[in-house]
Amino acid sequence: MSAVPAAASPKTRATVPVGIVLLVLLPLILMPLAAVFVFAFRGGAADFLRVLASREAQFALRFSLLIAFATASVNAVLGTYTAYVLSRYRFRGERPLGILVNLPVAIPTVVVGTSLLLLWGPIGLLGRFLAPLGIQPMFAPAGVLLAHLFVTFPYMLGAVKPVLDEIEGTYEEAAYTIGANRWQAFRWVILPALKGGLFTGALLTFAHSLGEFGATVLVSGNLRLRTQTAPLYIFAQFEAGNVAAANAIAAVLATLSFLIFFFLLRYTGRKGR
Amino acid sequence: MEPMHSRRRGLYPAIFLAALLGYAAWPWLPFSRAQATPPTIVFYGFSILADVCQEAVFPAFQKRWEAEGGGRVEFASSFGGSGTVTNQVIMGVPAQVALLSLESDADRLADAGVIPHDSWKKLPNAGVVNLTPFVILVRPGNPLGIRDFEDLTRPGVRIVHPDPMTSGGANWAIVAEYGSGARGTPGGEAAGEAVLAGVWKNVVAQAASARAARTQFENGFGDALITYEQEAIYDRGRGRLAADISYPQRTILSEHTLVVIDRNIRPRERALVDRFVRFLWSEEAQGLFVKYGFRSGRPELDAENTSFGTIAQPFRIADFGGWRRARRDIVDGIWKDRVMKGIAAP
Q1: By CB count within 10 A, which of A202, B182, B265, B315 is most buried?
Q2: A32 is a domain residue
């Protein structure tokens, strides 16, 4: 039981600064979010459910969730392995590699979409050789997954690598001295300590994948009942003037994000490390 | 004590995530799959087709195909600006049939080698499925008194216009604006350019598609919107039109071109796709288009919809020598090279 956090200075009057923060946040963040829910339920709960139950909305939600699960799973493995390599091995080009793997956060998602198309698309660098074989990753679920893996790659890394860097090398060395190989040391020494980081990284990846739009809109082909994700559904419905349909799904996505971030705060944030 | 606590701590998120995964994967689980997926037609269409296709034409064809003994058929569809759809098809989306707003986009597909040149001209009516004139939507009661394209050139009128880069409707609108001036006075090329320049000086918002532009207008942007008559009368029929329609004296009748993309059709899907393509020109499908506010070009069918307005002097793209010439001379030659450059320069 660690007692009072160090930052908690003697009670100062917080009313004014807190008021200012709320005043700024209200039109910036809180009211737009509220508007989504207000519009989603404008036609009443029955209307909300009817829109939600439509085949296209259901497909879009399910497709988005499956892509998010797949993205989180693949990047959990890839990201953790990359973090492990970057943290445990010393090699030439280590720093450039460290920068490279974090690059996706800095690249506009639209650029990710176009670059994937120009690589894997039917007229792309690799795609033109695959197309005659009948392999077409773009405008298919595989293309959406590729885009999401790219865009969310740094999240896992960012959550896991700091933890890895802080784990004392001595525990690992102790494992080696009693005859453990690298895998065993990883499995029984490092992995248990990584649990929190893995969970945080996977949830962040999941949440980001669920909401990804910029890259997806280019690589998915936006086909209803085939490759239309929930954000694409929202955009299409909103553009078509079906504000109620758009907002019903938007409300569901927003609620999911709230839950995910609630879990993040509740189950990892308090753990401290 | 500690491990038990941490195990319990992860329980709720684990249950939540497992429930989410179960919900998401449900239709694909082996025991929940009721029947094999039926054959599917992949249809891409320009923006304003979404409602008529999904609510009327697709279900009607599904009934027809089943009645003719073909069994179940599904549609996978996507709707967007005609230019967007064209780019997507060039980039390789699996579209089998695409209904484009203008023949110019079909030309682009042919130029990119996606379909043979002029292949759509072998279809009924040279590939044109339906038509609709271009009109001006104004705020209720027409407070600014906008009756024609010339009125849109007045200073201070704020116009919402779709974006010619991605929207077919925007290209039709450009020809409509130009033609309205040019065909009004003898030898009126300069008059056409003047209308174009005046209109585009007043454009305050550009949307990716005609449908998106209408959504912007509905959300309160602008004083006027130049769009397909179909959009306006379809909305009015549903009681959703918060605007008045101004019918210009002279405007264009847009003609919407169907293309069939053979490379995306497998041999066993051929008969199905061909039947659907023929169905689009059947009396049944044309009647549905008319019901949703498109004109069929057949007087006896068009008489069914009493909300069509009259245009004193309608014109067609053929009056400008077809889309290839109109694109070169009007859209690129006048609008892009002269009007837009004139507006960009201070």
Answers
A1: B182
A2: no
d(CA B201, CA B99): 31
Give pLDDT tens digits for A191-232: 888 988 999 999 999 999 999 999 999 999 888 888 999 999
Is the Cβ pair B211, A66 closer than 8 Å?
no
Which stretches of chain A score pLDDT less than 70? 1-12, 268-273
CA-nearest of A249, A60, A77 to A144 is A60
C-alpha to C-alpha distance for B332 and B338, rounded to whole angstroms: 9
Number of domains into which chain A is organized: 1
| φ/ψ of residue A271, rounded to 5 | -65, -20
Residue B210 in contact with residue B280, Cβ under 8 Å?
no
Separation of alpha carbons A117 and A180, rounded Å: 45
Closest CA–CA distance from residue B321 to any residue of chain A (Å): 33
User: B80 touching A, CB under 8 A?
Assistant: yes
How many whole angstroms separate alpha carbon B201 and alpha carbon B181? 16
- B245-289 pLDDT, tens per residue? 999 999 999 999 999 999 999 999 999 999 999 999 999 999 999
Taking the C-alpha atoms of residue A151 and residue B110, their distance in angstroms, rounded to an integer, is 34
Q: How many CA atoms lie within 13 A of B88 on its CB side?
A: 31
Distance from the A96 Cα atom to the nearest Cα atom in chain B, whole angstroms? 33
Residues 6+ apart with CB under 8 A from A113: A147, A214, A215, A216, A217, A218, A219
| CATH number for A63 | 1.10.3720.10
B40-130+256-300 and B132-254+310-344 in the same fold: yes
Q: Which CATH class is domain B132-254+310-344?
A: alpha beta
Give the one of B25, B92, B214 whose C-beta lies nearest to A138's C-beta.
B92
What confidence category does residue B13 fall into, taking pLDDT thresholds of 50, 70 and 90? confident
| Cβ-defined contact of A223 to B20 (cutoff 8 Å) | no
CA distance A74 to A233: 25
Decide: helix, strand or coil at residue B196. helix
Residue A244: what residue type?
Answer: A
Q: Do B27 and A62 touch (CB under 8 A)?
A: yes
CATH topology of domain B40-130+256-300: D-Maltodextrin-Binding Protein; domain 2 (3.40.190)
* Residues of chain A positioned with their CB less than 8 A from the CB of B215: 238-241
CB atoms within 10 A of CB B336: 14
Tokens of B145: 């008194």
Q: How far is C-alpha A217 from the geometric centre of its chain's CA atoms?
A: 16
In tens, the pLDDT along A164-199 reads 988 877 888 888 888 888 888 888 888 888 988 999
